[in-house]
Amino acid sequence: MRIKCEMCDGRGWRDIPLPQRRQHRSDAEYLDMAMALTDWMERDRLSQSDVARLRWGVDGNGYARSRDRVSQYCKARSYPSAKTIAVWQAHGLRL
Q1: CA-to-CA distance for 14 and 67, rounded, in angstroms?
Q2: What 3 state SS string does the chain have?
Q3: Exposure of 67 by Cβ count < 10 A (0-12 exposed, 13-18 middle, 19+ buried)?
Q4: CA 4 – CA 72 distance, rounded (Å)
Q5: Mean pLDDT of all residues belonging to the chain
């Protein structure tokens, strides 16, 4: 993929690698996790912030950490770690 290089004031182009998923999973697995996560959130009336708080706690200001990760999981763009899944299953996530 080619993008305009911001470091050279847009005068040049630079090749960047496309993002790659670290874990080798099928698209169906990503979609299944996204559906299970959103079903759990709807069933238990949890927000993405509540789900993040269960796993990663809060920062110094009292806000849930890693809310952006939950958003990516709900959109099937990334897949949570085994530890994250285990914590959420202890709180009611059904896979």
Answers
A1: 31
A2: CEEECCCCCCCCEEECCCCCCCCCCCHHHHHHHHHHHHHHHHHCCCCHHHHHHHHHCECCCCCECCHHHHHHHHCCCCCCCHHHHHHHHHCCCCC
A3: middle
A4: 26
A5: 81
Residues 6+ apart with CB under 8 A from 3: 13, 14, 16
Which two three-digit tokens encode residue 86? 């285990």
Q: What angle do CA 83, 87, 91 make, to 5 degrees?
A: 160
Give me the mean pLDDT over the 55-65 stretch. Answer: 92
Rounded distance between C-alpha atoms, residue 50 and residue 76, angstroms: 19
Q: Find where tokens 């806000």 sit.
A: 63
pLDDT, one tens digit per residue, over 7-45 is 555 555 555 554 555 557 788 888 999 999 999 999 999
CA 69 – CA 48 distance, rounded (Å): 9
